[in-house]
Write a structure and sequence with these properties.
Order of helices and strands: EHEHEHEEHEHEHEHHEHHHHHH
CATH superfamily of the largest domain: Spore Coat Polysaccharide Biosynthesis Protein SpsA, Chain A
Number of helices: 14
């Protein structure tokens, strides 16, 4: 295989990755990024809790000479502001935001994302997320439902047809045109999470398009418990309630119905139709968490802290 290169249009990319208590698996990701057919300009790690990351990478020295580490205390972590900090000062043409558990499936991840981003009018592109061998059947379905095998491009013209999916975008692995990113004000601050979709709505409203690049692939999945699903959906609804400018006029619950119907068909075709029973219970946890999150401002603070997966966020937000 030939060494790292730049594509014909010589697009450059900075990669920004927030980390929290990374383990050896994160070194695997850094090595995979180093092997890319298109070399990243630099990799910026915004790390929470310094004591975990520095000993991990200390022994690798020049292996990661293009890696910059910025350490922040846990109390300052914010899904929007922290990523903005990682992008600050970048001179690259594009910014690739990833999470510390998104593993490139091959050496062409950056190259394929750059190709999708270079299309006319495209301001953001997100990768296909695939389930690994340890993923549950429900998680395998979820990845197939949200990240199909066929690429697509979404714009404002698709709003009536796709609804909230028009500005679906995942910062587990998403690339943005840096100039557009900065012109539109970067990610919003004070985000519990979902900063990617709030910003994606700005992209769509300004007349740009969002691409889904099925050829750009990462392994990224979570085998959440029912309570973890409840808390994640509570936080999802909180983010939507806080940013009505992005989510007004579109419904997540209608998307949930489509999700459940597709799941039943998936389990039936897999010969596991009874698996739909525990799946339906999980969906009930998700729906209950979502509806509570929509009304979070009316809940006692103790109830909010019980429901959220991010109590640190609320302590900071309330203060």
């Amino acid at each position: 295989m030939s060494g790292p290169k730049q594509p014909e249009n010589e697009m450059t990319t900075d990669i920004i990755i927030p980390t929290y208590k990374p383990d050896e698996g994160f070194i695997t990701i850094l090595r995979a990024l180093k092997r890319q057919t298109v070399a990243p300009n630099r990799i910026v790690i915004i790390n929470t809790e310094e004591k975990y990351l520095l000993p991990l990478i200390a022994g690798y020295g020049q292996d990661f000479s293009n890696v910059t580490v910025i350490n922040i205390p846990e109390s300052e972590f914010d899904h929007g502001m922290t990523r903005n900090e990682g992008a600050k000062g970048s001179t690259a043409d594009s910014l690739l935001f990833m999470t510390m558990d998104a593993v490139p499936a091959d050496d062409t991840l950056v190259e394929n994302m750059q190709k999708a981003l270079s299309a006319r009018g495209v301001a953001a592109v997100y990768a296909r997320q695939m389930a690994g061998d340890e993923a549950s059947l429900a998680e395998r379905f979820s990845r197939q439902f949200n990240y199909p095998e066929t690429s697509s491009v979404k714009s404002l013209a698709d709003m009536d047809r796709l609804g909230i999916k028009t500005f679906f975008c995942s910062n587990a692995c998403a690339m943005y045109d840096r100039k557009v990113f900065e012109d539109l004000g970067c990610f919003p601050k004070d985000m519990i999470f979902n900063e990617d979709m709030v910003f994606a709505r700005r992209i769509i409203d300004k007349g740009y398009s969002i691409a889904y690049a099925a050829e750009a692939r990462v392994y990224h999945f979570h085998n959440y418990t029912n309570m973890q699903q409840f808390r994640r959906n509570f936080d999802l609804a909180v983010s939507q309630a806080m940013h009505s400018e992005a989510f007004s006029g579109v419904s997540s619950e209608s998307e949930g119905r489509s999700y459940a119907i597709a799941a039943f068909k998936y389990f039936k075709e897999a010969g596991r139709v009874l698996y739909f029973i525990p799946f339906a219970i999980t969906c009930a946890f998700r729906l209950f968490g979502y509806r509570l999150g929509k009304k979070y401002e009316k809940l006692p603070k103790k109830a909010v802290l019980f429901c959220t997966s991010s109590p640190q966020y609320f302590y900071r937000h309330w203060s």
